[in-house]
């Protein structure tokens, strides 16, 4: 039977609520503080919709209401027994079972030859440059959080995984650029 809720942001909300009950604003702030924007699409509208959906399905429930000064009241949510059980089952399934994902880059490189040698080489070289920049930024984030001891490594482990993935991609892209340049990547006759 398909899962009632499969939005990755719901996974993030449920994960945060393992730590302690929170209101949606605190959830968003915590996700940003932990640099989860590259893992989950975080915007206030979708976060509030996700929280409402989780509550509607009985996976979370209001546990308190807070007021900070003159600001409006904020509803604090916590797991229900059902939500905790569903979260653990969902998480276990996602980790255990590889699924077919359809990354745009893999789709695009399946037609790399259409750019011609020069176009393909230029596009891949630019991608390598951008990956280099991203990798450096992520290394700095990890140094400032995990390395500085401000965030436990376990809370940033997916960022570490993404870093390794980008490093592997960068190595492949650079090798392919070299193969285009030295002619070892065969191109169809008449294609430039």
Unreliable parts: none
Question: In one word, what is the shape?
Answer: elongated
The count of DSSP E runs of length 2 or more, i.e. the number of strands, is 2
Distance between the ends: 51 Å
Q: How large, in whole angstroms, is the Cα Rg?
A: 22 Å
- N-to-C SSE series? HHHEEHHHH
Oligomeric state of shown chains: single chain
Q: What portion of residues is helical?
A: 55-70%
Strand order within the widest sheet? 1-2
What structural category do the secondary elements indicate?
mainly alpha
What portion of residues belong to β-strands? 5-15%
- How much is the average pLDDT? 90
Note the total helix count.
7
- Major β-sheet annotation: 2 strands, antiparallel
Summarize the structure.
This protein has 192 residues and is mainly alpha-helical.
How would you explain this protein's 3D organization?
The chain is mainly alpha-helical. The protein is 60% helix and 7% strand. The chain has a two-stranded antiparallel sheet. The longest helix has 32 residues, at 116-147. It is elongated, with a radius of gyration of 22 Å.
Helix and strand topology:
Layout (H helix, E strand, L loop, with lengths): L7 H12 L4 H10 L10 H13 L3 E7 L7 E6 L1 H16 L7 H6 L6 H32 L9 H26 L10
Antiparallel strand pairs: 1-2
Features:
192 residues, mainly alpha, two-stranded antiparallel sheet, 7 helices, elongated
